[in-house]
Amino acid sequence: MKTIFDLRDNHDSEIYKSIQDLYDEKLRIFQFGDDSINACTGCWSCWLKTPGRCIFKDRMVDAYSDYINSDTVILLIDTAQGFINHKAKAFLDRIIPLYHPYIEIGDGECHHVARYKSYPDMVFFYEKKMLTAAEDQVIEDYLYRTAYHFKSKPFRIEKNPAYRLTQLYSRAAKRKSLDFATSEPMEKLVIYNGSPRKKGSNSALILKSVEEILGSRVEVRDLKETANWDRWADEFLSEKNVMIFMPLYVHSMPSHVMAFIEKLQPSAGNISFFVQSGFIESSQSHFLEAYFEQLSVRLQRNYLGTAIKGGVEGLQIRPPKMQKKFIKLMVQSIVELVLNGKFNPQTIARLAKPLRLGWGMKFLFKILSKTSLVNFFWDSQLKANQVFEQRFDAPYLITDGGDK
Ligand SMILES: Cc1cc2nc3c(=O)[nH]c(=O)nc-3n(C[C@H](O)[C@H](O)[C@H](O)COP(=O)(O)O)c2cc1C
What we know:
Helices cover 33% and strands 20% of the residues. It has helices spanning 14-20, 45-48, 60-68, 86-93, 133-149, 202-214, 229-236, 255-261, 286-298, 320-340, 345-351, 359-369, 376-384, and strands spanning 2-6, 27-31, 72-77, 79-80, 83-84, 99-106, 109-114, 121-126, 154-158, 164-167, 189-193, 218-222, 241-247, 270-276, 302-309. A six-stranded mixed sheet has the order 2-1-3-8-9-10, with helices on both faces. It starts with a strand and ends in a 20-residue tail after the last helix. It binds flavin mononucleotide (FMN). The site of flavin mononucleotide (FMN) has 22 residues, from helix 6.
């Protein structure tokens, strides 16, 4: 079975026929319509409370089954602000329940273990006309990376000069196209907290420490307060120093952060970014860093840089003293930015270590894999929730010899 997931706002159906002509079997069409896709809130219910099943009861409930029982999924995507828009991003974030929390290592990076025996090929289509060549490249690279993360073979459909299907191959993120710029010491830095978590947010913990040190020289705004977005987007036009701070979600920003970014207009001033992620290696965030460089150009803002820190997920379970120690360098990097008007390159380089996993870490992981220690973080919570026995459930698979 092959399924088109139409995530565009305007479902002009002409394209269906052109795409159908590329395949010799009938394509199913799944439209999302005006109903939005709930943004993932990072609650981990799909991993720890109802293994394999997302807690939300929106249209994704039907989409999961069509997705995992297809051999090919074709995603029709809208772009906004030079990236995939928040709706497409929400869809990708919500694919996470189809994988295990358990980790395996490949090519010097962490990956989630497969929950299902196979995953569909992922085919992407988006219009290029609103994009610069660099933005188009950033999106294609990001989508390649996402499919790789999701254990799917990646393809792209382009429509000019004629509709054609091309396979996407391995590539590195086109980051460092801009140097980190320098500004004056900041009177005030506005920091947007992009964690969607309602409780237990690592970002909130880190930013609380930043506020304790910098006092009125920072103003932290929580992007969950959507009622304030229009006012904040207006204020952005005259705010000199702005940072967007977020957890990494499927190699880029959480979808509500993208929805806010879509509201921002070009304006004078500085912009900086901070990305913290679950896996330890900072290479996880390189495709997002490449986008933020292009976003700064689009917004005509001075790019002060992107700080990246991996291995943050376990922060909440550390004792308070250890938490302070763990976040010290992250907090320091923001303090330096405010006091000096620029990131300290040494601090940023230290934060980013390791870029990828070296042989020592791979060896350690191999040893730990032979014990229950490597999965302790997840298994103890599965047991506490009394669903340990169900941890390998694959709830969306049709097993009656269907037409997959
Ligand atoms: C839907 C989803 C996708 C994620 N994708 C990634 C990823 O691609 N790479 C990574 O290292 N961490 C990933 N993470 C882990 C988060 O970045 C990490 O847990 C982070 O510390 C959460 O921060 P917060 O508590 O402030 O929201 C993902 C988490 C969620 C919920």
